[in-house]
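QUALITY CONTROL LOG
STEP: pairwise intake check
CHECKER ROLE: data steward
CRITERIA: each record must contain a sequence immediately followed by its structure tokens, with no blank fields

ENTRY 1 OF 2
RESULT FIELD BELOW
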Amino acid sequence: MRRLGLLFLWVAVQALTPLVWAQALSWETVRPGLQYARQDIPIEGTDSMHRLHWLRLDLTQPNLHLALTPQSCAGLQMPDLDRPPIVASMNASFFSKEFLTRGHTVSQAQVWKGNYRLADSPVLACSADQRCQALHQAPALESPAWVDAAAGVQSLVQSGRARSDADDAQCGAFCTTTHPRSAIGLDTEGKTMVWVAAEGRQKFVTGLPLAKLARLMQTQSVFEAINFDGGGSTALHLEGQARTHRPDNEPQARAIANAWVLSTQPVVDWAAICQKPAKTSP
């Protein structure tokens, strides 16, 4: 009987915990259809914390347009995107030193060249009308309906189920280590998209294992979620400013392959935004 009582208590605590975490967020409306929140979670017994930055996007909002930066912009740094009409950006694909991306990658309906590891990389793909889906089992080929798509490494939430510590243990150090992280999720109807960037590798700010990040996303009504490139690539920018702080050992922005962006215009002049300064002769 005592064991049954403890079981009921455990179930009750598990049910209440997500509610407490969800209520801890104080959402700031940036513009119609776009909200931001910062979350600091103290780590018991230490002077450190987890610090997460959240964006919540209404995909039905007609004045906000989701896009993935094109391959012609590969090698950009996140501050390059801090200009109109872009209002928010977050790093996306895992990539090689040549800025070739892991998994299916599509920008403005153009498939990227040189992709690698297609089969084992879950994909976030969106159509022209901003209907997005998380594909945890990557298809063999890109769909003609995809206007923008990027792949991650490891799924975080599948059909409402967050990955577990046991899932992380099977994955190894990549999943269990407290890295800075970047991830994107969708609600049950696919109408709300959630971005999250977790800082880390700082004196008093520690990153997250994947399972803990997944549970936190679950508390924000995320039904499907994919983990994107993290570590020193992790960066979330909003209204022309970096909201995330860099790792202590890597203070300068890292060159990345691409980024998810939100724009106030359906067409962006990528050539102007991603142009590299001309080198001057010595």
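ENTRY 2 OF 2
RESULT FIELD BELOW
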Amino acid sequence: MPKRQKLKKEDTDKIIITQSLWVDTITLTFDKVVCISCDLCHQVCPKEAISLKVQEERIVPDVDEEKCSLCSLCVAFCPVNAIVMRSRNTWKGTEEEIRPILDVGGIPHFSKGMQLNTELCPPGCDLCVKACPREALSLDKSGLKLDRLKCLSCAHCEEACPVKGAIKVTRLFEGNIQVDLDKCPPGCDLCVKACPTHCYTALPGKGVKVDPRHCICCGACYVACPHQAIDLTRLRLRSAEDGYSAVWSRAIDRLLEEHARFINHNETNIIKLMDLLHKSKL
């Protein structure tokens, strides 16, 4: 049986990879408009099919359709849902969004990010709405609404909220971000423009100030900086459980520093041990 070819279509807004089977068609779509120009999809791709390129003064993903295995790991890691995989069955006339690598197992589901308890919200309060840099929160007559597709779990809303417990944010990554001001040329603000959570502020004349409290460690600023002035270290990845597949281990190896991988692995084991002790009531 001949190997089915994957087809690639690309314009200024999207990249679409299509794999046609007997009655099923799988499409992997990269939305370059929604993309925040981070490096997560490029970092985790097990086939190294994803790279980054400059398009109209923006850094966007590029995909080698021959290398791409349609595993959907990039879909799972994309923080803004700019990558979507869909399956269409022409016989049944059905179409659905899929994440096969999560369904198969070995790759854990990630933390829920921002959790909102609207019952604790003071009537008419919109401080979190004003604080959100992504316009993920809105307030209408029915109350506060969260658009989870826009939310990046940057914790601006949690910091602005006057009621403890109404908003709880768990970031996908924990890490450190530092800027070497000596490497910053006068007037450069590329990291300020690239940061999707507005944690950078340009200083008068030269350099930037970074607020690590709202950094999600996506890497957008690191990718945008041509002067190697930004040092980004991811220390932990928050997930609902521990992953065990080779693809997962490789992704962790590329995303976290060596000592951070040790911390992340042992922290997971300690949590499991504490949970077992709690259930055994020892």
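INTAKE CHECK: passed for both entries
DESCRIPTIVE NOTE, ENTRY 2: Residues 28 and 85 are 4 Å apart (CA to CA).
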